[in-house]
Design brief:
heterodimer; A: 497 residues; mainly alpha; two-stranded antiparallel ribbon; two-stranded antiparallel sheet; 22 helices; 48% helix; 4% strand; B: 486 residues; alpha/beta; 9-stranded mixed beta sheet; 15 helices; 35% helix
Chain lengths: 497, 486
């Protein structure tokens, strides 16, 4: 299938793009038109120009609050959450969220907020940039060295943890699309040896990792040779020999970067670039839906993912270019029910579109409290496999906790002492006199949400039995209309995108 | 199959009738006409997340006619546990070489259950061609599908789908996790939460009681409507409907008020033996708390309650991915358990895990007995894989073990005379201890008992499923009796 055509481009597709590429529009709209400004403005462009406008930005190196002390997670979590809600370039923060979920480093083990702030800034710097370079930086990122035991990976006593996850989760995947193993246990051990020698400076004045030659495994290492038992079909061109670097510290210090080059040169048993395929699939799953590509199934999305993989590889593994290819695809706009919003997408998106307020201690504690209850505390994925998404988001607890957020936001006005709430009269059009008019306007501004007629009828009936209604009646608005917004924010259709 | 409003009203009336019908709990359940899949036996799954170092859970004390102890001592100079520290937890001998085997020295509770005939230890339980990825191996255990070529659903999910066919609103299982474990993936709704106490259906504080009821009814109508949509909308519909109708109603029943539930889960009244109360620190352990929640739910099926009707439960304990800092065992003669608990098991990370697991599970079993719920309850414990035979690092405090393969699984249940179900436990050692001197090419143990045999036995004997159904659920694997359930 081709890219989306200009003829198919409209308000709905523009809204869909803003929701998926970022967290939804910024909540500014003209009441008379009932349309969000950001959406209307993108809808007027061509798809190419709309996507280009979203992706055009300078590199950001913004880092969380300075002087983060031990245990000061709330401050860091509040800072990032606030940035996701308020930053007009939501596309970048969404990519940071993708990279955070991808490299899945958690405070549960890295009990050092300042390390995680450094990693978060690294993701921001590379959010739309060179992914291969980012992986090289992640190799020796202090939080990652702590998280996957790189700091105890040393000469004579290799620790396989990072060497394995680097290949399994961050770049190659265990199996290729044909079901063949991409790497063997020997490759894990070889990678671990290449990565020996790195530790962290705990000195707050210069927090960084550093290399110690005496801790580095000096011998030669061979990776991606054919292994009869595990990878009999390993492509011969994949093999890489790192010569012994015992005498040259400069060469030894950059060994880990050549490992990444070898990984990015890996070609799978179908002759395709393994990293590009793996990342295209993973990004498509995050931004669009879980694609069907594996051997043994219909492989319905194989050519789509391969197109994206080609675009990614040809750009020199530029993540922004992968995103451009994703956002332009026709299939990206095909269905708005194929992915369940993550808790962060749910909360941040709602705050943006309603111009809600989340501030103070409530904001700083929201990640470790309410978002964790919904299943997604930022800076704390459950393990290296990260948040499972979709099915895993849908549980009785998470549904009720989402209802709680919706209620807390819907019932409070921002003019009061509440730290979570929104200004309803800034949002509704008080000139509207029909129940259906109010419902349809809200469904459009918070979506557009395609709901069935029975659901729409329930929403309309909630506002009473007959028209006209009076939206200057503050009691009616504060009870019925706020509850209506609460109900819309908990619709099954609002939880998917 | 959608659930229509008429049926919903009937269900509501039946529940109301049950609530106003002062009688014994079985009759109250009958009055509400629980779905058939929500009745009968209990099954509790305990998952050790991260890959449990099974070689330090079930440990060779002597060689017998083999070399397991010799190899163990050689490969584990730092993490190995001395035979003299294993005397108190010795279990059966290994059937292959007659070497003596023992549980970890902290597993005093499970040792008691072994002696009483309630515990089956399944040695060397895993699958052929082991995968060393947590994720892949977990998926294999979840789906009961080593090639991962079968359906993406979980084996328990498929059991539930079979038991609950034609009952779209049945909610027969609880996962004490905020995210649903893929073990349960299927078409049947499963309740999942890690904090029952904090759950309720929130509505605007300014609404009147009538408005709140109206609001809730519309929410349920919308969610009920979504169930028939299929895809994620359908799952959202089922999950949201179950959460609001089941949990909310359960929690607002008079005898499960928040105070009572809190007391059940966090207090001391539940356990007459006080088995959880080793110290204040024990109570906070996640697994103990999850198991107490499960016990509270089982116990919550009392007169006047809206029964949850759940029968299958899952709890988990994490921290088993001990690549480093695994910690040597400090003999109990040197330092008592009580002292270790007070010190937070300093430098004894694996020992702490074993202690927590042992205390939580054995206390849970004691509490089941104290509440007369043990006769129809079986508990199974598993991990996605064991760990490498040889310890890593410089044989010091930094040392740990890398990903491995086979390890022991555990099943606890009522023995003959205790069981009120159709089957009963025959405790003992099953499977065989892998030969440590004949590892696979990665230095890992070779499995002796296919984990699907354990699943098959549970499905056949405990759930009473037919051979054909069991074979379908196991993707064609043919189960033959192991013997721990008869």
């Amino acid at each position: 299938m081709p890219n989306i055509s200009p003829a198919a481009w409209n308000y709905d597709t523009a809204a869909h793009l803003l929701l998926r590429a970022g967290f939804g529009h910024d909540g500014r709209f003209r009441k008379s038109a009932g349309e969000a400004n950001q959406v209307s403005s993108l809808a007027k462009k061509t798809p190419d120009d709309a996507v280009a406008a979203l992706l055009r930005m300078k590199t950001s190196t913004a880092r969380g609050p300075a002087k983060l002390g031990d245990g000061n997670w709330a401050k860091l979590q509040g800072w990032w959450l606030d940035r996701m809600v308020k930053n007009p370039k939501a596309v970048r923060e969404k990519a940071v969220l993708f990279l955070h979920a991808h490299f899945a480093t958690a405070r549960a083990k890295v009990d050092r907020p300042y390390y995680m702030a450094i990693q978060n800034a690294l993701f921001r710097e590379f959010a739309l940039g060179d992914f291969r370079k980012l992986v090289k930086r992640i190799n020796i990122d202090p939080a990652m060295l702590w998280w996957l035991d790189g700091i105890s990976n040393k000469k004579g006593f290799p620790n396989e943890n990072y060497g394995r996850e680097l290949q399994e989760l961050f770049t190659l995947g265990v199996y290729d699309f044909a079901g063949n193993k991409n790497y063997s246990q020997n490759d894990v051990e070889q990678a671990a040896k290449i990565l020996t020698g790195w530790r962290n400076r705990e000195d707050h004045a210069k927090l960084s990792s550093y290399f110690t030659m005496s801790r580095h495994e000096p011998g030669s290492k061979t990776i991606y040779a054919s292994d009869a038992a595990e990878t009999p079909n390993q492509n011969p061109t994949n093999q890489y020999l790192e010569p012994a670097n015992a005498m040259d510290e400069t060469l030894a210090t950059t060994e880990h970067e050549r490992l990444i080059d070898a990984i990015f040169n890996h070609v799978d048993t179908e002759g395709r670039p393994t990293v590009a395929r793996y990342m295209a699939r993973k990004a498509w799953k995050f931004y669009a839906y879980d694609p069907v590509v594996d051997m043994g199934t219909s492989r319905a999305d194989l050519s789509l993912i391969d197109d994206l993989a080609d675009a990614f590889k040809n750009s020199g593994y530029n993540f922004g270019e992968l995103l451009r290819a994703i956002f332009l695809r026709e299939e990206f706009y095909a269905d708005s029910t194929k992915t369940v919003k993550s808790p962060v997408e749910y909360v941040v998106g709602t705050l943006r579109m309603l111009r809600g307020k989340l501030k103070g201690a409530t904001r700083d504690n929201y990640s470790a409290g309410k978002l964790a209850d919904m299943g997604q505390e930022i800076f704390n994925p459950p393990d290296v496999f990260s948040w499972r998404g979709n099915d895993a988001w849908i549980t009785s607890q998470t549904m009720l906790k989402r209802c709680e957020f919706a209620r807390d936001l819907a019932q409070n006005d921002t003019s009061t002492k509440h730290e979570l709430g929104f200004n309803i009269f800034g949002f509704i059009d008080i000139a509207e006199t029909t129940r259906a008019g109010v419902v349809d306007q809200l469904l459009k501004l918070l979506g557009p949400l395609p709901v069935d007629s029975m659901t729409r009828d329930e929403l309309i009936a909630w506002l009473g039995t007959m028209d006209p209604i009076d939206l200057t009646d503050t009691t009616f608005v504060d009870k019925n209309v706020r509850a209506l917004i609460n109900l819309i924010l908990t619709l099954p259709q609002y939880h998917v995108q | 199959m959608p659930f229509n409003r008429r049926e919903f009203l009937q269900g509501t009336l039946a529940a109301a009738a049950a609530a106003s019908f002062p009688t014994i709990w079985m009759r109250a359940r009958e009055a509400r006409a629980l779905d058939t899949c929500e009745q009968g036996i209990n099954f509790v799954i305990v998952q050790l997340k991260g890959g449990n170092d099974g070689l330090n859970t079930l440990i060779p004390m002597t060689d017998g006619t083999g070399q397991n102890r010799t190899v163990y001592t050689a490969k584990r100079p730092y993490l190995g546990i001395n035979p003299s520290d294993l005397a108190a937890t010795q279990v059966s001998n290994d059937p292959l070489h007659n070497g003596q085997l023992a549980l970890h020295p902290h597993m005093l509770g499970l040792k008691g259950l072994f002696d009483s005939g309630n515990l089956a230890v399944l040695a060397g339980c895993h699958y052929a061609q082991p995968n060393l990825s947590h994720d892949v191996s977990e998926r294999i255990w979840y789906r009961a599908d080593p090639p991962l070529h079968g359906p993406g659903t979980g084996w328990v999910g498929r059991v539930l789908d079979g038991l609950c066919v034609g009952q779209p609103l049945a909610v027969p299982a609880v996962d004490t996790s905020s995210q649903l474990t893929p073990l349960f993936y299927g078409n049947t709704s499963v309740l999942a939460f890690d904090s029952l106490l904090s759950l309720s259906f929130p509505t605007l504080g300014s609404l009147s009681t009538t408005q709140k009821a109206d609001y809730k009814a519309r929410f349920l109508n919308i969610y009920n409507q979504a169930i028939s949509s299929g895809g994620y909308l359908g799952k959202l519909g089922g999950s949201g409907y179950a959460a609001v109708s089941k949990i909310n109603d359960y929690k607002t029943t008079t005898s499960t008020t928040a105070t009572n539930l809190n007391d059940l889960i966090n207090g001391t009244t539940l356990s007459s033996s006080g088995a959880f109360g080793v110290s204040g620190k024990t109570q906070g352990y996640g697994l103990a708390k999850s198991l107490r929640t499960i016990l509270a739910l089982m116990k919550g099926e009392q007169p006047g309650n809206v029964p949850l009707g759940c029968r299958i439960f899952r709890a988990s304990i994490g921290g088993f991915d001990t690549h480093g800092d695994q910690g040597a065992h400090i003999p109990l003669g040197t330092k008592s358990i009580a002292t270790k608990v007070n010190e937070g098991f300093a430098n004894e990370n694996y020992g702490a895990l074993m202690h927590r697991l042992d205390r939580a599970v054995s206390a849970f079993w004691q509490d089941l007995k104290d509440n007369n719920l043990h006769g129809n309850t079986v508990v199974m414990a598993f991990s996605e894989f064991g760990r490498r035979i040889e310890e890593n690092g410089n044989h010091d405090a930094d040392s740990g073990t890398d990903h491995g393969s086979a390890g022991p699984a555990f099943v606890i249940g009522p023995k003959a005379g205790e069981s009120t179900a159709a089957a009963h436990m025959v405790g003992g050692l099953y499977g065989a201890f892998p030969e440590l001197n004949v590892p696979d090419s990665n230095g890992n143990m070779v499995y002796q008992l296919d984990f699907r045999q354990m699943y098959g036995e549970l499905m056949t004997k405990w759930f009473g499923l037919g051979n054909g159904t069991v074979s379908t659920i196991l993707n064609g694997f043919s189960y033959s009796p192991v013997g721990f359930l008869v």
